[in-house]
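[step 3/7] inverse_fold.run input=structure_tokens len=105
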């Protein structure tokens, strides 16, 4: 069974026709993945800062509703994503790959 992750899409607020503030919204949807692969995680120790960068590669079906700028909730943490189209060099099959990263510290 494939791992499930939550896709979070934020829509910024603004002003309505009366120039009253409109709050931003978040649309959360559970999406099924084909696979979630841990990527290289590294610790950063620059300029006296203790930090880390955590990465995952998430494989999705071609029609998955994930775009650049979305965030994914993977194993309890919220990651920013960059989505790329992937096609096998040996077959015509392909899908989407979401490169998820989180920096903290």
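[step 3/7] decode complete -> sequence:
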């Amino acid at each position: 069974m494939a791992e499930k992750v939550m896709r979070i899409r934020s829509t910024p607020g603004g002003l309505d026709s009366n120039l009253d503030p409109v709050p931003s919204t978040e649309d959360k949807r559970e999406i099924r993945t084909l696979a979630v692969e841990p990527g290289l995680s590294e610790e950063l120790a620059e300029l006296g800062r203790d930090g880390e960068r955590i990465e995952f590669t998430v494989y999705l079906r071609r029609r998955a509703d994930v775009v650049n700028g979305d965030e994914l909730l993977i194993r309890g943490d919220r990651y920013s994503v960059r989505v790329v189209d992937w096609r096998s060099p040996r077959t015509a099959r392909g899908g989407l790959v979401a490169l998820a990263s989180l920096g903290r510290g």
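[step 4/7] annotate
The first strand starts at residue 4 and ends at 11.
The chain has one domain: 4-10+21-104.
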